Here is the input.
Amino acid sequence: MKAMLTAFVAIAVIAVGANMILSQAGFSAQDRVSSDSVRLD
Here is the structure.
């Protein structure tokens, strides 16, 4: 049971960390596809 809870916490930490790193690195579809003439909120 302890190993499963540790794995769940590790999955959550990895998911949140990857989301933060990738959003700051500019790998979103909005950053990759849009040009300067497109207005996105």
Q: What stands out?
A: The radius of gyration is 16 Å. DSSP finds two helices and no strands in the chain. The mean pLDDT is 83. Residues 2-25 form the longest helix (24 residues).
